[in-house]
Specification:
Strand order of the largest sheet: 2-3-4-1-5-8-7-6
Order of helices and strands: EHEEEEHEEE
Radius of gyration: 15 Å
Shape: globular
Number of strands: 8
Largest sheet: 8 strands, mixed
Helix content: 10-25%
Structural class: alpha+beta
Distance between the termini: 19 Å
Strand content: 35-45%
Length: 124
């Protein structure tokens, strides 16, 4: 069974979004300007950056793309290629093709049969 491993929340104004999530929820945010991405730590992590609390996940904030304008959950999969085949066979569609994340793995986004966008993540 594949599990939810990450969340992403899009922003239009990075500074405003960072201020909101810090003030509203006390999240620890780390700006990654070279990627236009913000790592959002909603739970403490260990030395491998994995959540210390069972069942908890961390995520990120990113510039709102046209193909994924709403918050998304990411499901950890062993193989994005295999998962995309299963998604298509189950009636879903590929929204964002498999995209490498240097040193981390790869991601893709799919739309389910209800039009919801869900992310897939494959660890390197």
């Amino acid at each position: 069974m594949d599990k939810v491993v990450h969340f992403e929340i899009p922003f239009d104004d990075k500074a405003r979004a960072m201020q909101f999530y810090t003030d509203a929820f006390g999240w620890k945010l780390m700006d990654m300007p070279q990627m236009n991405y913000v790592i959002a730590q909603s739970v403490a992590t260990d030395d491998k950056q994995m959540p210390k609390e069972p069942g908890a996940i961390n995520g990120g904030l990113f510039q709102r793309p046209k193909e994924a304008p709403h918050p998304a959950l990411y499901v950890g999969v062993a193989s994005i290629d295999e998962a995309l085949e299963k998604v298509s066979a189950a009636g879903g569609k590929v929204v964002t093709a498999k995209t490498p994340i240097p040193g981390m793995g790869a991601y893709a986004r799919i739309a389910d049969t209800e039009g919801n966008v869900v992310g897939l993540f494959e660890t390197a």
